[in-house]
Every structure is written in structure tokens, then in C-alpha cells.
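Chain A, query sequence.
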Amino acid sequence: QVQLVESGGGLVQAGGSLRLSCAASGSIFSIKVMAWYRQAPGKQRELVASITNGAGTDYADSVKGRFTVSRDNIKNTMYLHMNSLKPEDTAVYYCKAVLSAGPWYDYWGQGTQVTVSS
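Chain A, predicted structure.
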């Protein structure tokens, strides 16, 4: 049984930093892509950053230069380093992994709340 567990969310003042973690566990054969999404109240879920197993990265324009995604392939863990946080970054942040535990499938974590106060 595959699980994705996010951690590291919390309350921070504008201009501050947080680091989110997403740990994948279970009978995993391979992870192709891992990604962070976020969903603010009343808004659609949006892609924040993604990283492939070859360490290729992609970012939403709104976070470029402020957020950095990284990955530890040995630990099956992804990180999101968030700097210069803004109130508009407030959202529930979700981890997604495209992985194989048999067939390829998208797995999601339960989400972690990030709140940035002005």
C-alpha cells in the first residue's frame, strides 16, 4: 500500500520561509515525477512545482525565484523550500507522485496547511 505524507506546514509571517516534505512509502518500484500542488479557499488546485527522477524541475510563474523543489531518490522524499513567502501563498499544499507499485498511477498526499500572515 503506497502512502504519501506531507509535513512542514504552518503559520509564518510574510517574508519568512518554510520547508515542506513529502515522503512516499510502501511497495514502490519507481517514481517518475513528484509535484507540489496548492489549493487556496475558493480557488482551483494549481501546480506549484514538479521534479522528475532525472531532477528536471518546473515552477509556476508565481513562485519562480522564491521556491525550490528538490528530491532524495534514496528516501523517496521530495522537498519544497519556500522563501520570501507572501500572503497569497496561503493554501493547502498537496504532494503528488506518479509512481509504479505495479501499474503506473497518480498518488496524492493528504495536504498540509501553509498560512502566511501579512
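Residues 2 and 26 are 4 Å apart (CA to CA). The longest strand covers residues 30-39.
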